[in-house]
Write a structure and sequence with these properties.
The protein has helices spanning 64-86, 117-123, 129-148, 202-205, 214-229, 242-248, 263-272, 283-290, 312-315, 336-341, 345-360, 366-382, 387-402, 406-418, 426-444, 447-461, 469-495, and strands spanning 17-18, 22-31, 34-41, 47-53, 95-101, 104-110, 114-116, 151-152, 161-164, 169-171, 178-179. It is α+β, with helices and mostly antiparallel strands. The strands form three sheets. Strands 1-2-3-4-6-5 form a six-stranded antiparallel sheet, covered by helices on one side. A three-stranded antiparallel sheet has the order 7-9-10. The protein is elongated, with a radius of gyration of 27 Å. The two termini are 51 Å apart. Residues 296-337 are annotated as: Disordered. InterPro entries: Kinase-like_dom_sf, Prot_kinase_dom, Ser/Thr_kinase_AS.
Amino acid sequence: MSVNTTEWEDAMRPGDVLFERFRIGAGLKTGGMARVWLAEDLHSGETVAVKALGRDYWPSLYDVDERSVRSEALKRFERERDLLDKFAGPGIPRLLGYGFFRGDPCLVMELISGKNLRDFLSLHQPPPMIAAAAIGVQILEILDRIHKGGVVHRDLKPQNVVLANSGTVHIIDFGIALPTDPQATRYTRHGHTPGSTGYMAPEIIRGVKNPTPAADLYGFGCMLYEFVTAKQVFSELPDRSIEDQHRNDLAPRLDPARHPVGADLAELTGGLLQKEAADRPSLADGLEVLRRYLPRLGDPAPSPRLHPDPTLPFREGRESPPVPVPPAPVQRQRPSVKRRLMPSRREFGDLLEAAEREVMAQQPGTQTERVAAQAREVEAAWGPRERLVVRAQLVRADRARLEGDWPGAGRLYRTVERTPLDAKDVDLLLEARVGVAECLVPEKDDTEAAFTLWKAVVVDLRGLSRSSLKVHWRCREFAAELAEWGHRDEVETMLGSISAVRRPEVP
């Protein structure tokens, strides 16, 4: 897929402030469908990582197939957010924030200072056996949490394992992780088999749609083999691809006579590299074997010294027990009296439509007041990400704007902008951004920033396959003001790409 650099440039640039808290710094890396940036947390002063879904992953959104690519990418990004939140704890970066920035979804995560395992292994070929065991045990303990939580990582490889300066191991990049529930939706990367060459399990290469945790254990077996030999299990041949060898060929065996391993570790590695998932040893078996090779409390550091040193948590007694997977949230029953007072979703949807007609006619009235009065109650009942709840918050913001309460309106619009919405609700995010742009003029007297933000909204809006009439109306409504402030020609050109909407009449 080619890249259109004229229109789909990075939305994020050094110096930008994300969610009024994170100042973007240098780009860290580009890979797959995402870009990673360093950023400063303006609240704590810490350096964090920001992962943004790169726009060059889809050069044009006018083609139906390419819109589908973006939709799938957004859904995978949302799943990664949910999994980082679910598995919060040792060995997985903390999720610090999620939202959209100029139309692109972003994850803000804890930055793990250290080296990824690929860089570490390039410096230590191979690492001492006690270091390999320390890394392996930590990886398996993290995988144990992930697997017990009903998820397969699917992309376990050295580049997705980070060795922190403290010696602790972290697994990153849950972009193609998959629930083990066979009913879960599959978001397969467009045109790709999920995983990375050299570490993909044979069943994934064969196209199995519901891989088990044993697929991750195969990837771990590939890394374990590399720890010992400093070589990958298979290398490219003139007539055989690496994938073909992983799918069909017996893996080479570790030999205790030539490699610094016992028969137990050689047998474990060979078992993990079995072609059939059912033939591989369990994760518990792997932990039992590798723990025999760990350093003991008070042991000296490896020689030559390693940096980072994965044996440190074991030698100095700083090993933390794995955090148990949090139980599913309990659905508490509300008192029956409140449940009777609550409108049904259909009733509240009808009320919202009437209130939105009032707002679009610039005549907020009784229906708008009723929505404002019930907004907190429905948010508590249905959650802040429910589409009806977000629409209600936008009605509240619109009422404040029409009444001249610009600071109040700005706060409400920005609250919606920071809400982690689902991909299907991006039109509501764009509607909130129009409000934020409009509030910039009376709040900060910044018509240029308002115009820039409005223009970004229009670009994003015309790429959506589905959107509400109201967001089109709001874009056109504010465009009339922008035209009066010196942007008439550019405004008229851009408005030609979005739908015209007639102002509704209020009965």
